[in-house]
From TrEMBL:
Gene Ontology annotations of biological process type: exocytosis
Matches recorded under InterPro entries: C2_dom, C2_domain_sf, SYTL1-5_C2B
Annotated gene: Sytl2
Keyword Repeat: yes
Organism: Elachura formosa (spotted wren-babbler)
Superkingdom of the source species: Eukaryota
SUPFAM superfamilies: C2 domain (Calcium/lipid-binding domain, CaLB) (SSF49562)
GO cellular component terms listed in the entry, alphabetical order: exocytic vesicle; plasma membrane
Record's protein name: Synaptotagmin-like protein 2
Residue ranges of domain C2 in the record: 51-173, 196-319
Amino acid sequence: ESDTASEISFQFNRHKKTPSIGSHSSDMASVSSVSGSVLSVYSGDFGSVDAQGTVEFALDYDEKNREFQVHVSQCKDLAVVDEKKGRSDPYVKTYLLPDKARMGKRKTSVKKRTVNPIYNEVLRYKIEKMVLLIQKLNLSVWHNDPLGRNSFLGEIEIDLASWDWSNRKLNWYPLKPRSLSAVNGVDHRGVMSLSIKYVPPGSLGKRPKNPPSGEVHIWVRDIKDLLQLRPSGVDSFVKCYVLPDTSKKSYQKTRVIKRDTNPVFNHTIVYDGFHTEDLKDACVELTVWDHEKLTNHFLGGIRLGLGTGLSYGMCVDWMDSTQEEVAFWQEMMLAANEWIEGLLPLRSL
């Protein structure tokens, strides 16, 4: 059924109702660092002001340092958010699209009480030139609210493939209303084909391989339509954890499939040490990554569980499965010893 297989134990004391956060906080830091960078381009927009005004900036690529630079100079005639006080507290934010999670956001300082802010700041991205050329730059202006209720003031989007890189001068650009694609949350990351199976303890009778405890089998088949981060494609692999265990014993990964946006992995992972009651508190996290020499870049993932927000009596942010993911997990729980097949869209975690 698969060309590679691995088997490890589910390492978590299921009898401990209040597990120590410290036992896995360092491992979870890597997950939270990804989660914090994949917020919507328009997250926190509570305003209803119309976009107006202009922004002055310049683009450059430093070949020596392999760095994309956005020199944000100033804005003029921005919309007034607080009409009673006649003020706005604007700042500028940038993303590289389509995969805003990969490089994250950059933003300037906040300028208080002005609709004509002057920044003279450089926002920097460490990125290869050929990767940059298949991106779009989204530059938006926001009013900063102390309570986090920030208001959108306008944006501009630039296709970097057609940008004139000999133009390093500061130029003025009109701010526009938000684009429909971003408002509607278009964020296609690909679709994973996989199968899962639960083998309860003692369910195989007197067979020699009858597991003393339950097992969860995860068969990662393939993925369609991954984000293409470079002209040659993407070098992808899949990581797997059974949360809340984020130790090295829980960590498994597939081999890297190079230069392919439709990789076939055909990799099976077996986790033992499961009791039936663990299925409602555990979560299988599968994440897809682009492999590079210096760092790996998050492409998308899924979380298989009941999505209750709780694990062994503790509130956790990773127990957030979508309806499709919950239904897939529930079907596995109800059909012991049977492979359950599914197609699940990758998402920002």
